[in-house]
Amino acid sequence: MVIQNSPNSLRSCLRIVAADVRRRTAGLSLAKTPPPHVGGYRASGNSRHAFRQRGALMVELIVAMAILTGALLPIAYSITSEKHILNASYQRAVAMEIVDGEIEALAAGEWRTFAPGQQEYTVRARAAANLPPGRFLLTVATNHVKLEWRPGLKDHGGPVVREAMIK
To answer: Range of 17's domain?
Structure first.
């Protein structure tokens, strides 16, 4: 098959397309199927059968959307709750690392620089920037030292407490 690029073949194609566009936009319905090169579809009138088919299609669409929504909402909720749980676990792990490191330094002798009793403790770890608002509390007693992290917000890892015996 040879494709002709002559101006006459292009004009004839454009005339066919233009006639098809006019026929479709004018709302003309044909009694028989048009030729395949013009669109090759069957014109349907406003019969009861066509209305029933459209109605059934709409019902199927609504049911499918309801099933999809019913399946995706629990999945979206579980993903969101897992994200919150993972974030709280991460913050707790960071707090434990900081408290463990600081309690080792305190047990090694740094506790002597603090007065007995409970007081706020300033940590030197840069990882503390990854923690939610909260505070570190140091309690120095005669025979032990206790360091704890208390988050200011609920559900952000919970408190972390470490104690060490001192001499």
So the answer is: 7-43
**DSSP state letters, 62-100:** HHHHHHHHHHHHHHHHHHHHHHHHHHHHHHHHHHHHHHH
Tens digit of pLDDT for each residue in 14-68? 677 666 666 666 555 554 555 555 555 555 556 778 888 888 999 999 999 999 9
Prediction pTM value: 0.60
Report how many domains make up the chain: 2
Of 6, 158, 4, nearest to 90 by C-alpha is: 158
Report if residue 25 sits inside a domain: yes
Whether 63 is covered by a domain: the verdict is no
Residues 6+ apart with CB under 8 A from 24: 39
